[in-house]
Task: inverse folding
């Protein structure tokens, strides 16, 4: 029987920033990271001198493959003026910067460093869709990809298994999509900061202007059911079930707990970290959950001494609409088979009892894969500090938020719990 | 003024193993890692149940580019039976597994994990030389590579700067090469386990057998001066100044200090870790040293409370012969400009006062880049425990050894100090 996990000393999060996420032909990785870094600096209320940063951890997945540049640690270290201090890249596919976060937390908790910059970046839109699909598939098992299990294929199969087991259907996936767009509409950093209703209005206006037949959708679901508006990608995953290809960067500043209040009066504490690994699809006994997510969650709850019901708000890895449903179950927020009902009842909406992906999630905020993990923390930072603007959740005494990140077909999953004190 | 670095608790190294390094068309990364893992297990005197391993850190540089497979953490986690426990890949070009080692050390020192597997792997020989050159160049700055600064180019320029400053010449580089081969001749895991003398004899025998003109080299240096036997690659780097393209894997087992003796009666303790980052060549004021190596060394000595003269034996990153000379100066073993003289005097040989690269080094043991960092520790493990066989150094009371690893053109450097107690 192993002993309970614990951290050697407290670790606080005292700043967080991100670039806008989107497809930017005119911005490279350095440009994007500079945007994130500058915003992070502006959020450290009492200021941070870059000279005081001891080390950098940086998540990136595909830059060596897509833009033929690896070894990003020292490049970003140089960019933000840290050289000759250490810089380490972590890679866990779409969870790459959540791994960086964990290493930053462990480095501070170990007593070795006091102030650590953690971030992620990805530059995906300069390649065409086929190349991006090929690159992302490196996160999965090659023979599974060749058999059709690109990521839409994987999550399509996941959704059909879930439907079959629990009686859910496409209408339930649409609830996720509609919510994601409604939240992203209120997030100026989001790649798609428009509601489904906005998109419908735009399409109607365009058809009218061009003298084309005007679609007569009565509501968002009718729009999402329309195969011309929302074509199938890998059934039941349709276009609006899938996150986009994105460029972006994000970062957070970690410091030893005892130093937190010299950086800000409203620090967050990293009270729980968890990480798990998973095997390929061929080895899964059941497609309706992710073993690595469950392991990561259990570890993080144990470290934090918290239960799922203590987490008031969370960002979860909704690379596809079905993923959000599975993860809120795997994280213990809802029982297996109950996640889709909770979403239908509005419990996970901005005004629900357990708001999920208030940022718009990967689906609408965007998914520059290496930047997603720390990007999720930027949202939790804003919400827990009451700085989320129009999308601020109205929960009274909001103190505990969490972020869940997934890489590959569940090969790597992380769960991080933050607490405001 | 920052506080001195320290680790929250002691970390011990209780097992170490590596595959043979070489070019293996019939072995993939998993096969190679399995070799290393199985050897590591056999070295843990009191046994290790893989179930007791809490996490994996794995260094790899080029597998996504060369064999289109990324996300190696969970693949190797699955291979050695750790799933669903966490697995994290680190990348710092040729220092990738030294970064994994550091993260493993910090994870144990933080109190989070007690038993951590750390390793590295690389599979390079399935691509042709041009592709490998292109892939490795991703570790450098793209416009510098286009200007001719492939790695032989970089170290060629480094050597001419060093020659110019300190009066060294090619003959001094040859001393490094001859020593490396002499050591590797005694290392059955080495890619080139032959001395220069062996190579000369083979070539003479072959010429004799074929009735071709028999070369009349009087000694190793005459062989190395012969442009047909040892052609220039990027002057003054000749063929025998350069490390080969290699496949291989290596790993070590780290445990909390207080648990060490339940694994072995002869543990090593990780008493010093250091890491630095460096900028591109264009930003270097002086080509005759590596700022990142100096930073890493200073950090590691501070943590260990040791001085360079306390390190009795070391593996250093000799990707090219000149690199060994610079690094033994940067690490403080010899004064700037004195390294080549120390080698000439035999101080760094197997029977010298400060043996360097007893394994044969990258030059002759081989350099499967992601496997090199932990591979260096395998040699220090053997030497400090008196298990290095024919190449065991005869130093009395051998207790302190170290390993230095470099990535890119000095973008990432690490230094690790091990002590037997």
Result:
């Amino acid at each position: 029987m192993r002993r309970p996990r614990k951290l050697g000393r407290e670790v606080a999060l005292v700043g967080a920033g991100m670039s806008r996420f989107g497809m930017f032909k005119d911005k490279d990785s350095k440009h994007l990271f500079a945007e994130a870094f500058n915003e992070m600096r502006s959020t450290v209320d009492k200021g941070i001198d870059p000279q005081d940063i001891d080390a950098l951890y940086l998540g990136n997945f595909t830059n060596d493959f897509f833009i033929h540049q690896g070894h990003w640690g020292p490049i970003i270290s140089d960019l933000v003026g840290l050289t000759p201090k250490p810089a380490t890249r972590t890679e866990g596919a779409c969870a790459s910067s959540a791994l960086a976060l964990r290493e930053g937390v462990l480095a501070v908790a170990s007593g070795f460093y006091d102030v650590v910059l953690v971030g992620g970046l990805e530059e995906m839109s300069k390649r065409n869709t086929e190349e991006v699909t090929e690159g992302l598939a490196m996160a999965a098992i090659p023979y599974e990809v060749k058999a059709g299990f690109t990521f839409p294929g994987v999550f399509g199969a996941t959704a059909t298994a879930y439907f079959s087991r629990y009686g859910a259907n496409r209408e339930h996936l649409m609830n996720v999509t509609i919510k994601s767009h409604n939240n992203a509409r209120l997030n100026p950093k989001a790649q798609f900061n428009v509601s489904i209703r906005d998109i419908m209005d735009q399409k109607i206006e365009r058809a009218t202007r061009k003298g084309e037949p005007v679609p007569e959708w009565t509501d968002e679901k009718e729009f999402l059911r329309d195969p011309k508006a929302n074509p199938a990608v890998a059934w039941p995953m349709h276009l609006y079930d899938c996150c986009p290809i994105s460029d972006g960067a994000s970062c957070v500043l970690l410091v030893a707990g005892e130093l937190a209040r010299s950086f800000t009066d409203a620090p967050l504490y990293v009270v729980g970290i968890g990480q798990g690994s998973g095997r390929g699809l061929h080895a899964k006994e059941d497609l309706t959950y992710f073993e690595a997510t469950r392991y990561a969650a259990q570890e993080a709850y144990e470290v934090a001494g918290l239960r799922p019901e203590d987490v008031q708000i969370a960002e979860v890895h909704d690379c596809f609409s079905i993923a959000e449903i599975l993860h809120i179950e795997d994280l213990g927020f809802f029982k297996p088979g109950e996640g889709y009902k909770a979403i239908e009842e509005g419990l996970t909406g901005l005004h629900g009892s357990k708001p999920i992906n208030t940022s718009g999630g990967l689906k609408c905020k965007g998914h520059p894969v290496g930047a997603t993990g720390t990007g999720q923390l930027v949202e939790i930072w804003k919400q827990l500090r009451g700085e989320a603007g129009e999308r601020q959740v109205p929960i009274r005494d909001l103190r505990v938020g969490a972020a869940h990140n997934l890489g590959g077909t569940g090969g790597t999953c992380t769960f991080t719990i933050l607490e405001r004190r």
Q: What stands out?
A: The two ends of chain B are 33 Å apart (CA to CA). The mean pLDDT of chain B is 96. Residues 137 and 150 of chain B are 6 Å apart (CA to CA). DSSP finds 15 helices and eleven strands in chain B.
